[in-house]
Write a structure and sequence with these properties.
By secondary structure, the chain is an alpha/beta fold. The protein contains nine helices and 15 strands. A hairpin with a 2-residue loop joins strand 5 and strand 6.
């Protein structure tokens, strides 16, 4: 049975603690989950191999991590039959979905950033990506200077193209950015020629190229524009849920299970086409393995 559903607004549970003249509202997501009898997990359904859909079900590296968190929630609540429902979201929808209570956590290619930390919380980071650009081999583009006066695509609600101007090699480059509705749509803008490059996280680019009709037509090129940590997005001011999520993720790192998940999704054949991305872990990922942290960028 498919476990991907669309949900309507769900009310979160809040408590208020007076601290002088200010008030801090603590969210009790575990109480909400227990009352509802299910965990609602948002995810990006077009971020292979981090999070995507296989035969109607959520799958991927981040999905496996969130299933581990969900299992620990079951243990914490002594509710072994607690249901898990996955809710597909576009990048533009994810923060609102957390803050409205529509979902209890979000698992996908979501950067843990200081800006987002003003609105939501994040678990300990579980992945580090490098932002680069995908192009058609026929263009012979290799560097940022090749993008001058060109159209570049990225996905609405993501942070990627801002790094072109931040890079010293891109300061004098003028690009016009167009936004796809989601990752697949953004890649399609490159595929049909409406954009001449797609700037995005390298793991997402690799996944989209691998599942495209003609993978040999594309390549990932250019400098690393940014290294960004991925983490599970959580409701702000919910220390119980964050502690549980942190404990789960840190446990996966320390036990070696996280590297096993990396091998499963990045260095072995994955569904639905049994494609092997053959992506070795980058330096930032290996540093995170040695020192797990919830620090953003």
């Amino acid at each position: 049975m498919r476990n991907i559903v669309k949900l309507t607004f769900t009310t979160a549970i809040f408590t208020c603690c007076s601290l002088g003249a200010s008030h801090v509202y603590a969210v009790d997501t575990l109480a909400k989950i227990k009352a509802a009898g299910k965990i609602n997990i948002g995810f990006n359904d077009a971020s292979m191999p981090i999070s995507y859909v296989v035969n109607g079900n959520a799958a991927g590296y981040a999905i496996d991590i969130c299933r581990n968190i969900a299992n620990n929630i079951r243990k914490e609540l002594n509710a072994p039959n607690l249901k898990i429902e996955f809710v597909p979201l576009t990048p533009n929808q994810r923060i609102d979905a957390i803050n409205s209570g529509r979902i209890d956590m979000e698992c996908g290619s979501t950067t843990n950033s200081y800006k987002r930390q003003q609105q939501v919380a994040f678990s300990t980071n579980y992945y580090y990506t490098e932002v680069r650009m995908a192009v058609k081999k026929s263009t012979h583009f290799q560097d940022l200077s090749d993008l001058d006066n060109k159209v570049v695509s990225t996905s609405a609600g993501t942070t990627s193209t801002q790094y072109i101007k931040r890079d010293a090699r891109g300061k004098d480059v003028t690009v016009r950015t167009i936004y796809g509705h989601d990752m697949d749509d953004s890649f399609n803008l490159l595929a049909i020629g409406k954009a001449e490059a797609f700037v995005m996280d390298d793991n997402i680019l690799a996944g989209l190229i691998a599942k495209s009709q003609n993978p040999d037509n594309y390549e990932i090129v250019g400098p690393v524009l940014s290294s960004e940590p991925y983490a599970v997005m959580l409701p702000k001011n919910d220390e119980k849920l964050k502690t549980l999520a942190d404990t789960t993720v840190i446990g996966l790192w320390k036990s070696g299970e996280m590297m096993k998940l990396y091998h499963k999704w990045f260095q072995a054949p994955i569904p639905p086409k049994n494609i092997n991305l053959n992506m070795p872990p980058n330096r930032s990922y290996l540093n995170l393995q040695r020192r797990p942290t919830d620090a953003g960028v």
